[in-house]
Amino acid sequence: MCDHATFAARGEAPYDLILSHSCFEHIWSPEPTLAMLADHTAKEGWHSVQIDLADHGSRDTNFLEMLEWSDLGYWLTMRFAPGAVNRWRAQQFIDCYEELGLMIVAADRRTQDVLPTERKRLARRFRNLDEQELLTTELHLITQGRRSAPQVAGQKAPVSTA
User: Fold this and answer.
1) Strands 41-52 and 15-21, bridge-based pairing
2) Is 87 inside any structural domain?
3) What is the CATH number of the domain that holds 24?
4) Is residue 156 part of a domain?
5) Which residues of the chain have pLDDT under 50?
């Protein structure tokens, strides 16, 4: 793992393929890393990312346990714990990729059938998320190419769900 300056100094960019498997959920603030990777992607380059959105400690019994903590409680307890997950949900990753100008060609969500806990047990900021967002335990995104012009605010790029 390296910072943006170290990565850029390598002089290897642009890359034709960025591949990530079960990594982005462990980056506490994913935006800067996603932006750095987008900056180093070839104009017609691809991203293939798989993001594990389930609580890693309670995956089988309560895949949303990490969303039950208040923001402060979670930060104080988990911020410096190795391997702690960042609590981003699928749509946040999709929105970030779109804002960076990467064109999503596929977005596949793996979901559970029922919520493992009542919504009232979730931290306030997660209680009003739609059902699909809460049931999503894994996201696989494939992007190809970048838009040449910045995206107009409020305009969404088309997403194909497989």
Assistant:
1) parallel
2) yes
3) 3.40.50.150
4) no
5) 149-155, 157-162
Which pLDDT tens digit goes with each residue over 79-98?
888 888 999 999 999 999 99
Residues 6+ apart with CB under 8 A from 101: 38, 146, 147, 150, 151
What is the domain range of residue 115?
A: 4-146
For residue 27, how many C-alpha atoms fall within 13 Å in the half-sphere facing its CB? 17
pLDDT (0 to 100) of residue 117:
96
3-state secondary structure 9-59: HCCCCCEEEEEEECCHHHCCCHHHHHHHHHHCEEEEEEEEEEEECCCCCCC
Residue 49 lies in a domain: yes
Using alpha carbons, select from 101, 95, 108, 106 the residue that is nearest to residue 145. Answer: 101
Would you state the structure tokens that stand for residue 70, as one six-digit string?
Answer: 């208040």
Q: Cis before residue 158, ω within 30 degrees of 0? A: no
Per the structure, how many domains does the chain have?
A: 1
In a domain, 157, yes or no: no
